[in-house]
Design a protein that fits this description.
By secondary structure, the chain is an alpha/beta fold. 48% of the residues lie in helices and 13% in strands. The strands form three sheets. Strands 4-10-9-8-7-5-6 form a seven-stranded mixed beta sheet, sandwiched between helices. A four-stranded mixed beta sheet has the order 1-2-3-13. A four-stranded antiparallel beta sheet has the order 11-12-15-14. Helix 2 packs across helix 3. The radius of gyration is 33 Å and the shape is elongated. 38% of the residues are buried. The model has no long low-confidence stretch (mean pLDDT 89). Pfam families: Aminotran_1_2.
């Protein structure tokens, strides 16, 4: 075949292909697009052609592995398995921990103001969060049984995946109405509420300014968020303002970031409360968002138990996020986050604990709604508890020569620390104080009063103890309840005071 015939053949094939192409629907539009594209922007046509050819080549290329596989013999595999040592999930127990575990009392039966131990003794229980003795409330028990028979034990699914029931929606509405905010979301676990809320809003590069004394679950949430953290001295709002000023100055010429103040309404390990009006003022002044953990103040402070906002007369809508606890004072389980509609709806798809954990059992949701209603309709419940708090404080502080109470006057969790002047005169270390107070707890148990003490935050694996950061001071924790009479409360207070005195004056601690 000579050159002329070859050209004729190619022309004929091209004409046939062109004729077939013109028969296709939309061919005229494609040709017009190509012509106008080439005329107006030939560079784009070249790029599109290159991308088309690259895509064709990529689709036709053979698949290959990006990993070089090394085949091991059975002997080599067994040897590697024998050499592998898994890291422990938790730190090894210390001798002190082992001794404490051996002495730890075990309750038998329901928890109440008077509880039975496994050794058969009955003790006055001042170590549980049964503040209003809701555990023994027959009305609540009956409601729980009815709910159990109607809904079963649990939804067995996350809220977003067939786990939400009408009782959950009612509890959310009840909490929101009680606080006076637009919306609320409930979680199935109290501890993981704030530790999920924080990382759902705070990300790497964001700024968190937090009180040094925030509780362990809040610290976990801050850690998970991977945000930049600035700490301020406990309840020192002048120091907080200095930190806010410094952060604002540092970020002035940087890209805009989200900024949060995180603190507790009533501090778990100290017992005092925040100055909420001042916090709101600083929040607006420096343009930060405020996350308030009311785990221990909701259901306790205020005329109807609405928490710190009610006690200090602050509009709850001024707080961006209010985190609370349904498992403590309300005698149910889980927790909640209340705020604007946007804040709540964001968590339904971005909060790990809400998205991936089974929803709260219906009977516990009903219990939370009922106890909220009781606190609003029966203010005498709160009055009875506060009367017992006053009776206990009268026996311990200022009567005791050795300890003082750092808790707010309305806090049913009384935190008792050794007086600084006593510690200084005796030369006791932090470890000595913790052991002395544990001896006092044991002495109280000997006299049929069950109390506990504040424990140090656990260290992460591999963390040097010198890098542990802020730790709560050694303290005794006495949890009040309205289930005891005033005389029983005073008797327990006298027992605690005498036990502390006996331990401090024992030969073991005389120096």
């Amino acid at each position: 075949m000579d050159l002329q015939e070859t050209q004729n053949t190619l022309v004929r094939l091209f004409n046939d292909a062109n004729a077939q192409f013109h028969k296709m629907p939309g061919s005229a539009i494609i040709l017009r697009y190509i012509k106008s594209s080439y005329q107006d922007d030939p560079v784009r046509s070249a790029i599109e052609l290159f991308l088309f050819l690259f895509a064709v080549r990529y689709m036709l290329s053979p698949s290959y592995s990006t990993q070089k596989k090394v085949k091991l013999t059975e002997e080599e595999i067994d040897e590697l398995v024998d050499e592998w040592t898994p890291e422990p999930l938790v730190a090894a127990m210390t001798p002190t921990d082992e001794v404490e575990n051996e002495k730890r009392p075990i309750l038998v039966g329901p928890t109440g103001p008077k509880s039975k131990l496994s050794n058969g003794r009955t003790v006055t229980n001042l170590a549980s969060y049964n503040f209003y003795n809701f555990v023994g409330n027959e009305t609540l028990k009956e409601k729980a049984v009815q709910t159990l028979r109607t809904y079963g034990v649990g939804p067995c699914g996350p809220p977003g995946f067939y786990g939400t029931q009408d009782v959950h929606m009612k509890t959310e509405a009840d909490v929101a109405a009680h606080l006076g905010v637009p919306a609320c979301i409930i979680y199935a676990q109290s501890f993981s509420t704030i530790s999920s809320v924080i990382p759902s809003f705070c990300k790497r590069g964001d700024i968190i300014v937090a009180d040094k004394a925030v509780n362990f679950s809040t610290r976990k949430g801050i850690q998970i968020s991977r945000s930049t953290v600035r700490w301020y001295e406990h309840n020192d709002l002048e120091d907080l303002e200095r930190v806010l000023q410094r952060v604002t100055k540092e970020q002035a010429k940087k890209p805009l970031t989200r900024r949060f103040i995180i603190t507790e309404g009533m501090f778990e390990n100290i017992g005092d409360v925040s100055d909420l009006p001042r916090l709101v003022e600083l929040k607006h002044k420096y343009k930060f968002r405020l996350i308030l953990d009311e785990t221990w103040s909701y259901g306790v402070l205020g005329r109807t138990g609405r928490g710190l906002t009610e006690a200090q007369n602050v509009d709850a809508r001024e707080i961006d996020m209010i985190i609370g606890n349904l498992s403590g004072p309300l005698c149910a389980a889980g927790g909640f986050c209340a705020g604007s509609e946007e804040v709540v709806e964001h968590q339904r798809i971005s909060s790990a604990s809400y998205t991936y954990s089974a929803a709260l059992p219906a009977l516990l949701s009903t219990t939370a709604s009922e106890t909220i209603s009781m606190l609003q309709e029966q203010p005498e419940i709160l009055t009875a508890l506060r009367d017992n708090i006053k009776a206990m404080r009268a026996q311990l502080d200022p009567r005791s020569d050795w300890v003082k109470c750092t808790s707010n006057v309305d806090n049913p969790i009384m935190i008792l620390i050794l007086k600084p002047e006593v510690v200084a005169s005796k030369g006791w270390s932090t470890k000595d104080q913790a052991q002395l107070l544990q001896d006092a707890v044991d002495e109280c148990l000997t006299n049929s009063v069950l109390i506990t003490r504040v424990k140090a935050f656990p260290l992460a694996l591999g963390t040097n103890p010198r890098d542990e950061g802020w730790q709560p001071p050694p303290a005794i924790k006495v949890c009040m309840t309205s289930g005891l009479t005033k005389k029983e409360t005073e008797k327990a207070g006298i027992t605690i005071r005498h036990a502390i005195t006996k331990v401090v004056k024992s030969n073991k601690w005389i120096r």
